[in-house]
Amino acid sequence: MRADREGGWLAAFYFLYFCALGAFMPYWGPWLHAQGQGPLAIGILTAATQFSKVLAPNLWGWLAHFWGGRRIVPWAALITAASFFALYLAHGHFPMLLLVTLAFSFFWAATLPLVDATTMDWAQYRGAAYGRIRLWGSLGFIALSLGMGWLIAHWGMTAFLPGILGFLMATWWASRHLPYGGGGSPRLHAERPRLSDALHERHLWFFLLAGVLEQASHGAYYAFYSIYAEQHGLDSVTVGMLWGFAVLCEVAFFWVGDRFIRHWGVPWVLGGAFLLTALRWGVIAWWPGLVWIILVQTLHAASYAAFHLAAVHWVSARFPPALRARGMALYASTVYGLGGGIGALGAGWSWARWGGSGTFTAAAFLALSGVFFLIWALRPRSALEKKVS
């Protein structure tokens, strides 16, 4: 009974967190445009939300190492909501918008890696599947990416801020009930493993570099997929359905993904995810017809869900429990923060010079180049390296 309640709160957190994210990502740019911001300002403000993920998770992971997630996550969630509310006060002034964007992004980026670490610890202790908890986040993203569109269609951009703020407050409430591992500050005299020992392991850095390349390859998809599809004759309704279909495939993999990992192992799932990611971008680049685009949207289950699920398992196994939150933070900040930011900037540069087909071809090569570093990351470790973890 207790395990069901704990799992329910974890699922609720992911659902509410990604409801807010699903409402934010598609409509942040249009909301800024409605506030009178030009293309350059929108690009800067969007990049600010990405690059805040580079520093923030590492800082919060370091604090959680000493204070525990119970002290960090609820406060970070509450300050995220308060900072987001401050957008009401910006009144379209760029300097104020930038300051507020950096503030809420900094605290928003704190929560997810720490909750991922909590969920992995809980799943291992309870014999549960991480993927079946995490899939609720994908369902939340679908619900609000579609739901916010309906609200905006009826009430305009005035629905953007209150709609997201409500879910941020609900996320804070759910964060107060999560099954954190003990919480509170550890005893000062207790011996704790050092992060520096884990950081000396070269396999970790090869893995992170591979992840940066894999995630950077998604820059073309997140920034230009809708534009590219419409250039090839698809209307906006069809494009929206394709986005939703991709996330449904992601949900399906999260449901069965832990079985894949138990049967095939993390290395094979990761390798397959990288190769299928490259295949996805290559098909979009060279065969952009409707049938092929629908078929390769199923590969979102590989390029995002399989990669993320296997990566979380790999990182979790690489760090001892006392350092797991910091390991997850390092993974999130490097792969999604740095990789996502580089991918978005690179996609804009290549789109202006090479067009859509060239940009997605470059994305395919990025994912393929990640395989080289992944092979080095998955090589057997020496006896000395095994002592670290």
Automatic annotation (TrEMBL):
Hydrolase as UniProt keyword: no
Compartment(s) where it occurs, according to its Swiss-Prot or TrEMBL record: Cell inner membrane
Transmembrane segments: 7-28, 40-60, 72-90, 96-115, 135-153, 236-256, 268-287, 293-316, 328-352, 358-378
Entry keyword Magnesium: no
GO molecular function, one term: lactose binding
GO CC terms of this entry: plasma membrane
Pfam families (alphabetical): MFS_1_like (PF12832)
Domain Major facilitator superfamily associated: 9-360
Lipid bilayer topology: Multi-pass membrane protein
Keywords, alphabetical: Cell inner membrane, Cell membrane, Membrane, Transmembrane, Transmembrane helix, Transport
UniProt-recorded name of the protein: MFS transporter
Provenance organism: Acidithiobacillus ferrianus
